[in-house]
Amino acid sequence: MSTAAAPASDSTAASSGGPVERSIRAKLTELLKPAQLDITNDSWQHRHHAAMRAEGGGNGETHFTINVVSEEFQGKSTMQRHRMIYSALSEELASGLHALSLKTKTPAETRPSKQS
């Protein structure tokens, strides 16, 4: 189980993490062709929740933080970007993935703004 984010701009680190994390990485890499994709498994922070205790702690892959930078987000609102991701991960969400914390940006949105 991986609790560390993949190195910045490393969308090829499919060998790290558990099966849910690897599936998330593969699907988002295919869909978004990201310049950066960082996935952090936050499930350990939620193991005390009633739903997680009822499932015996779940499979250890229920909560993730995803930071993604992609040109595919150009011209899309935050809600549209999040819907793209939730749609791509519908199978995982139906199979035990419980929560995602998403940060979605275009490459232009990550560049420092120039002050005049």
Structure notes:
- The chain is of the alpha+beta class and 116 residues long.
- The protein is 34% helix and 17% strand.
- It has helices spanning 19-32, 50-54, 78-88, 90-94, 107-110, and strands spanning 36-41, 63-69, 99-105.
- The protein has a three-stranded mixed β-sheet.
- The protein is globular.
Mean pLDDT, to the nearest integer, reads 81
Strand content: 15-25%
Read across the widest sheet, the strand sequence of neighbours is 1-2-3
Quick one: biggest sheet? Answer: 3 strands, mixed
What is the general shape?
globular
Q: Compute the gyration radius: what is it?
A: 15 Å
Roughly how much helix do the residues carry, as a percent range? 25-40%
How far is it from the N-terminal to the C-terminal residue, by CA?
47 Å
Order of helices and strands: HEHEHHEH
Q: What's the count of strands?
A: 3
Give start-end ranges of low-pLDDT stretches.
1-15
Structural category: alpha+beta
Figure out the total of helices. 5
